[in-house]
């Protein structure tokens, strides 16, 4: 028999102090295979870098997505020691990256959510610089603290429309070529030609504030509104298979939001093997005074109109992608880009 009144019925409004959620999906099934041999150390670098560089209104969700016992115990020990970690989700089997993060994304209440791989080293000021892009471009729905010279190639129809009709598009010098070079080294393949480490494509607003056009998947911050137009069915792929495009990139573009990145490099992709410089970076972060971190009020979303989205998609598919070399030549790019 039920006795009394559930107090939640008289105080049923959800009120959050947090403004930003970081989601880390971790898949480390063992520590014996060559690929996973150093994965635990890399994840520790990632998690500690988030903890040392995030302001106190940040909350961290960790998904144990088919991990071995050693990693499970490590995650729960961090949860006990660090209040910023307020959610740990456990699944015995690997549900895949998208299904794992969507288990949190769909119930997320914070206005901003950062989705990150578990091998990312966050640097100080990554939140400040990301927020600055949202502030300068209230039309932005996805912002990465890691610029990519080739990010313009993917799901940027709405971004292209904005650049052509509301702002400006141009090439400018890459602020941190070493950051992009480290990224291609971390994945073990050549992603960029020399020109891509020298110039990237940027967009500017009417006040001449700039951001890099496009970004990659391994770390990005989203407005929660982006996921209102995301697929509702379960993702059939563990990784790749177009899953990140369908569940992360396309909803942002279809919603009329810009896909951007910071001009500077404020995070590193580490790969599966730690290097001495990574520990040096982490040591610097440990001495960083967190009281210097600020929280910001992100301006309300201003997505482009449905007509602008359609025009942007048409221009991207039928004109920009086919004739981008001619367009880049008009912008002054002499080399093949």
Automatic annotation (TrEMBL):
Keywords recorded for this protein, A-Z: Transferase
The protein's name: Glycosyl transferase family 2
Domain Glycosyltransferase 2-like residue range list: 25-159
Organism whose genome encodes this protein: Algoriphagus boritolerans DSM 17298 = JCM 18970
Pfam families: Glycos_transf_2
InterPro entries the UniProt entry points to: Glyco_trans_2-like, Nucleotide-diphossugar_trans
Gene3D superfamilies: Spore Coat Polysaccharide Biosynthesis Protein SpsA, Chain A
Keyword field contains Oxidoreductase: no
Gene Ontology molecular function, alphabetical: transferase activity
């Amino acid at each position: 028999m039920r006795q009394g009144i559930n107090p939640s019925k008289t105080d049923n409004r959800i009120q959050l102090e947090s403004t930003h959620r970081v989601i880390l999906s971790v898949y480390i099934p063992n520590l014996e295979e060559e690929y996973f041999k150093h994965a635990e150390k890399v994840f520790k670098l990632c998690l500690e870098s988030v903890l040392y560089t995030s302001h106190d209104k940040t909350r961290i969700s960790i998904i144990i997505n088919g991990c071995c016992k050693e990693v499970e115990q490590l995650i729960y020990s961090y949860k006990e020691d660090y209040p910023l970690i307020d959610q740990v989700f456990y699944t015995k089997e690997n549900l895949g990256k998208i299904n794992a993060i969507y288990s949190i994304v769909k119930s997320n209440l914070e206005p901003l959510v950062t989705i990150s791989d578990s091998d990312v080293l966050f640097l100080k000021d990554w939140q400040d610089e990301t927020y600055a892009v949202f502030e300068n471009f209230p039309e932005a729905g996805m912002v990465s603290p890691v610029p990519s010279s080739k990010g313009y190639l993917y799901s940027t129809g709405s971004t292209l429309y904005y650049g052509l009709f509301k702002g400006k598009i141009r090439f400018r010098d890459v602020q941190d070529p070493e950051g992009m070079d480290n990224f291609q080294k971390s994945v073990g393949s050549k992603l960029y030609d020399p020109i891509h480490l020298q110039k990237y494509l940027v967009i500017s607003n009417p006040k001449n504030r700039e951001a890099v056009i496009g970004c990659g998947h391994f770390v990005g911050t989203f407005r929660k509104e982006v996921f209102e137009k995301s697929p509702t069915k379960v993702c059939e792929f563990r990784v790749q298979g177009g899953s990140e495009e369908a569940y992360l990139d396309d909803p942002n573009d279809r919603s009329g939001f810009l896909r951007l990145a910071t001009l500077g490099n404020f995070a590193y992709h580490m790969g599966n093997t730690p290097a001495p410089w990574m520990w040096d970076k982490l040591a610097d972060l440990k001495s960083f005074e967190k009281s210097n971190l600020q929280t910001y009020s992100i301006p309300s979303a201003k997505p482009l109109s449905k007509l602008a989205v359609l025009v942007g998609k048409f221009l991207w598919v039928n004109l920009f992608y086919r004739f981008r070399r001619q367009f880049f030549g008009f912008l002054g790019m002499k080399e093949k880009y």
